[in-house]
Amino acid sequence: MKNTIGREVPVNIEGFGKTDMFIGAWEKLKKGWMDEITIPPPNKAKMPHQCKSCMDLEQAITRTSPKNGMTVSFHHHLRNGDNILVKTIEILANMGIKDITLAASSLNQSHDSLLKYLKDGTITKIWTSGLRGILGKEISKGILDKPVIIHSHGGRVRAIHTGKILVDLVIIAASAADEEGNATGSHGKSAFGSLGYAMIDAQYAKQVIVVTDNIVDFPCIPISISQNFVDYVVKVESIGDASQIATGTTRITKSPLDLRIAKLAANVIEHSGFFVPGFSFQVGAGGASLAVAKFIREKMTQQKLKGSFLLGGVTSYIVDMLEEGLFKTVFDVQSFDAAVSTSILNNKNHIEIPAGLYANPFNCGCLTNKLDVVVLGALEIDTNFNVNVITGSDGTIRGASGGHSDTASGANLTVVVCPSFRGRVAIVKKTIHTVVTPGETIDVLVTERGICVNPNKPELEERLIKTGLNIKKIEELQKEVESIVGVEKEIEFTDKIVGVVEYRDGTIIDVIRQVKP
Amino acid sequence: MEIIKKAQAGSFESSDILILIEPLDKKTGRKIEIDSTVMKEYGDSIKKLINNCLDTYQVQNIHLIAKDKGALDLTISARLETALKRASQQ
Amino acid sequence: MKKKRRTMLYIPGNNPAMLQQGGVYGADSLLLDLEDAVAINQKDAARILVRNILKEIDFYDAEICVRVNHIDTPFGMKDLEEIVPLQPDAIRFPKTETPEELGRLIEIIEHIEDKHGLPHDKMTLHVMIETALGVQNVFDIAKLSKRVDAITIGGQDLTADMNITNNRDGSGIDLARKMIVMAAKANKIDAIDTVFVDINDDEGLRKEAEYSKNIGFTGKAVINPRQIDIIHEVYQPTQEEIRKAYKIIRAFKKNKEAGIGVFSVDGKMVDAPVMARAAYVLELAEIDFDSI
């Protein structure tokens, strides 16, 4: 049946169950509590001076008594340099464990080798925010019987709180840990910064293993993951490829097109009415989205304007803005380069936060609820401002939901930046393949050929028109793009559903169907 | 237009198309091979455009290989026209 | 009202990716280049591509100028035959050296325009001075025809022709620059300065653009879109200049309504040239004439 934004979502999905239909971005938050009940965290006890150290990962896993049908979780703070996830699955597979539910906060190219475990029944269900590389391609072809469930960062925390994701075992990679399992990512040879995504799993998983390549003297400070949640500690040679984990300092893009779009977006923000002293701000980790920070930084310096906090995925560029005094605080759920871990360690105003505080709305107030301005990307956007960040123009899974729908829901001003078309493929379209973020939460679209304001914000549109910016109706922009690139042939899909897209409140906003071979 | 020799036009750059053509014997017909980075989305329309262009230039017996990197229609037409003109020169 | 030409973005004529994006960067003018930016064996490909681009692509408000190959090359004539009928805003002639040569070119263009039933006064011509001889003859070249609307200097080729090194301070081509500006001013047309090649040196670009503006150039060639904003900032009128222009335009409108043709502002008579200058200042400041 069609949900409230016109997406065709079956009432019952094979391999998933009954769907709770999306009914609007804020409908489920209005009553002030969540319908679903939360589960209690696990009940454990340890004898005094009981040793947690294990010889290797295999021994630790064996001690947790893995079973068929278990849920194992991991996190993506190691980005493309992770090798712990694949090692763990290999060990479980060799033990003969089958029917595993993989609850990885995000999956990328470093996990490509998991493919054979999807094909042979070792892994039969996946919860994740992002699915890139070979896994995304193959899952789109329908190699799993159960659809993959795509969630937002905030939504993942909600799902764990309610037991929808029932974690049996979590493996937490840390760049420093002590013998009791106090762990952090802020120092060590493989330092990666914030452990924000792992914190909920540490509290709720039945068994917790901390893996590190750097055992430090007790206690390991700062205590990002606390020992009272940790069952076992393992030292390995290396938690991953350091060169892929901490990739130097992040540079602003040199692409003239991205810079042009970023400059226009900064002008929109400047005249939006939200560029005021004490404003809070979030940008992406690269491309036009990060480049907006460069122009905002220049404007803030020129106008002697100071902001309140920066939020989200943190790059060294954001750290620079903090150190310059342009903002008071940085709230960090994920760090993108080496300079950031040092800042977490040394700067008391650079605060590591868990994903729940970042973006789960089912509590007394997550940080995205306090955000003023967020700049996001898009793979596709339709004329109702609905955004796709998960599937490409060819219908295959290649992106991530991440914090997109979380921040869009909370921010006072949500700005999407993207080219109007990439190569020959239109990004601004009449209909898109998958909706991750509903249009009612998107305020402005900034492209190189025009800026479009959501009709639900008429005063903002008037304001921006008065400043002489190139404001167009999104239908007009879409028609213009079509006249340049031509009309795309519609991709054909089968009826098989290979992915279910969860909105942050647990409702199902869209589904991903198998591409016809 | 009479195609008398092999020719090519365009490049492998993004948003361009490389078109390679050679004449075939009379009555062999058109042998057209298209490879595109946007095959699913535009494969059919590229083939149609190429055939229409060949009709306009009244070219029948030709082997044409197109390697497309997301070129717009105007670029595909331009590269094809260039290749045909090069192939018809002495 | 005179159109502003603060920046002219050079786009290689055989590069579809750059051509199709040309109009999005906010440059005042675009130069679609069939000449130096195109390899000899691709001149035909570029010509056909640019022709299709001119027909299909919307460059929004930018002025479109096409640089053709020199008429003495095997390509120049074919370029003109293909491009003139499409009537871009302007055609730029490289390496113009004598008024006779320009005269010959104009005849060819008018002949093509006649063939297609096109007027002789719509498309304008830009001459590019890239040799010592061209510099010596620049005033006569510019004076030759009302169709000549801008003079540009080609710094790279000029230093090669003069057999000097193109050093950073531009001292070698300074006289040439000034002569070109003088010829442009004497003919009341635009002078466009040469490209600044180091696209990573923002400060150097700004300094050169400021010097350029101070000696009278009305704009500068640009080889990377990132250079555009800096040059626009340099050409941005001061608040004082804008205020004065406002005063003049407002006074003009008021007096026009009252039927008064001649009037003064701040004790100075406002005649047509003063009006034109004021309108140009507002154009540079991107202020809408009608909003005053």
List the main descriptive attributes of the protein structure presented here.
heterotrimer; B: 90 residues; alpha+beta; Ribosomal Protein S5, domain 2; 2 helices; 4 strands; 38% helix; C: 292 residues; alpha/beta; TIM Barrel; 2 domains; eight-stranded parallel β-barrel; two-stranded antiparallel ribbon; 12 helices; 44% helix
Task: Give structural notes.
The complex is a heterotrimer of chains A (517), B (90) and C (292). Helices cover 26% and strands 22% of the residues of chain A. Chain A is of the alpha/beta class and 517 residues long. With 90 residues, chain B is of the alpha+beta class. Chain B has one domain: 2-Layer Sandwich (Ribosomal Protein S5, domain 2). A 4-stranded mixed sheet of chain B has the order 1-2-4-3. In chain B, helix 1 (39-56) packs across helix 2 (73-88). Chain B is globular and about 35 Å long. Chain B starts with 6 loop residues before the first strand and ends with a helix. The radius of gyration of chain C is 20 Å and the shape is globular. Chain C folds into 2 domains: 7-234, Alpha-Beta Barrel (TIM Barrel); 239-291, no CATH class. In chain C, helix 2 runs parallel beside helix 3 and helix 11 crosses helix 12. The model of chain C has no long low-confidence stretch (mean pLDDT 93). Classes of the chains: A alpha/beta (517), B alpha+beta (90), C alpha/beta (292). At the B-C interface, helix 2 of B face helix 1 and helix 2 of C.
Which shape of chain B, going by the Cα principal axes? globular
Structurally, the number of domains of chain C stands at: 2
Element order of chain B: H for helix, E for strand? EEEHEH
What would the principal axes of the Cα set say about the shape of chain C?
Answer: globular
Major sheet of chain C: order of its strands?
A: 1-2-3-4-5-6-7-8
Mean pLDDT of chain C: 93
Q: TL;DR of this structure?
A:
With 90 residues, chain B is an alpha+beta fold. Chain B has helices at residues 39-56, 73-88; strands at 7-9, 17-23, 30-36, 62-68. Chain B is built from two helices and four strands; from the N terminus they run βββαβα.
